[in-house]
Amino acid sequence: MITHIQARGTRPGPVAVPGRPPFRKETVMIDHRKLGRELELFDSDPLAGAGLPFWLPAGAAARHAVEQYLRELERRNGYQHVVSPPLGRPALFELSRHLEHFAEDMFSAVDDELMLRPSLCPHHALIYRARGRSHRELPLRIAEIGQMFRAERSGVLGGLSRVRVIALNDGHTFCAPSQVVDEVGRELRLIRRAHADLGVRASSFRLSLRDDSAKFIDDDAMWAKAEEVLRLSLQNAGVEYEDAPGEAAFYGPKIDIQVRDDAGREQTLSTVQVDYDKPQRFGLSYADADASHQVPVMIHRSLAGSMERLFAHLIEVQAGAFPAWYAPVQLAVLPVAPAQDDAARSVLAAAPGLRAELSVEGSLGARVRQATLRRIPYIGIVGEREAAAGQIALRLRDGREIPAQSVAEALERIARVVASRSHDLLG
């Protein structure tokens, strides 16, 4: 429980909140680096190093809620979760071709034996080959929110959008060639579901292809096959897209789902990639129905991208006013006077499933303003009448008010909005 130090006073009138949706004025560009620090979501320190932000309690609470949601969404859709180490021997990244095609974005070896990984896919390939596989197991879907590292130049680092340590919502599906189109379509539908719940609006889809540069694997047949699969998947999904030559992964083409910031800049948030290369390189196989050994296809996908880039985007497009289900604090309970402190504490005791806090110091008006500035979705006021009747009056962060109702009814209303992941605080 967090107690804020602020002077008691009388019940205030309605709080004027600028913008609709709350805290949002379309003529004002929002910078997540400034707002994220004001809301105490994250911070950084030169002593830690550039591109190495740390998540403060409020930001960590929001991030954990999103991570829990993504894991549950994946679990319900057939994914098994794994945990893999963030380092590997140089030989691992030679096998995956990262040292050949991606070395300039990797950190130097920690010592002669280990390197920080630039992606999770080499470890996931090792997990697949940990034992023999049968065609009956396919498609095999594994997922992880794991760390990877990029040696970004200091001049491009900033806030959460460009960092050196990345927590990626990553997943890999190993499937038979005949299953690839269906699996890619399935991933596109899952991405749309995750985006809707998170409050992300895609600005465009693009098919990222290779160009004539030497940074891509030289295998025309492999590229043609992967491109055909992705085009067919996009066509089946009814998605408009544009080609983006030169933006492919070094090992294959990919579908990139783009989002746009206030300045009109686009960046990739989610992606689906088809990889025929790594299964061959890692010697992956499965026993087919006729007992022959076949090579699976590896599909890389991220529903929501990295936690850092995701929250950089969410902070800006939502002006820090997150939906109730992943708001750092969902309910602030404010007693009007000391005589109502015990009644207010009883509200918290009745809400163990919510991220709720008690605010008792300072005038009521100051406490309401502070909770509003912190983008807390629900502000519960407990005055003399409410305490006597076992009730609470709810004020929403956008200034709307809900008349006093029983504590049980109010908490049920909030819990219903949270459980449904509604973006409307009234449900």
Unreliable residue runs:
1-21
CATH superfamily of the largest domain: Bira Bifunctional Protein, Domain 2
Mean pLDDT over the residues: 91
Can you tell me the number of structural domains? Answer: 2
CATH structural fold name of the largest domain? BirA Bifunctional Protein, domain 2
Give a quick account of the main beta sheet: strands, pairing sense, barrel closure. Answer: 8 strands, mixed
* Number of alpha- plus pi-helical segments: 13
* Gap from first CA to last CA: 26 Å
Shape: elongated
The percent range for helix content is 25-40%
From the alpha-carbon coordinates, what is the Rg to the nearest angstrom? 25 Å
The percentage of residues in β strands lies in 15-25%
Number of strands: 19
CATH architecture of the largest domain: 2-Layer Sandwich
**Helix-strand category:** alpha+beta
Essential attributes:
single chain, alpha+beta, BirA Bifunctional Protein, domain 2, Rossmann fold, 2 domains, eight-stranded mixed β-sheet, five-stranded mixed β-sheet, elongated, disordered N terminus
Write up what this structure looks like.
The chain has 427 residues and is an alpha+beta fold. Helix 10 (341-349) links the parallel strand 15 (331-335) and strand 16 (356-358). Helix content is 32%, strand content 22%. The strands form 5 sheets. An 8-stranded mixed sheet has the order 3-6-7-14-11-10-8-9, sandwiched between helices. Strands 16-15-17-18-19 form a 5-stranded mixed sheet, sandwiched between helices. A two-stranded antiparallel sheet has the order 1-2. It has 2 domains: 32-317, BirA Bifunctional Protein, domain 2; 324-420, 3-Layer(aba) Sandwich (Rossmann fold), CATH 3.40.50.
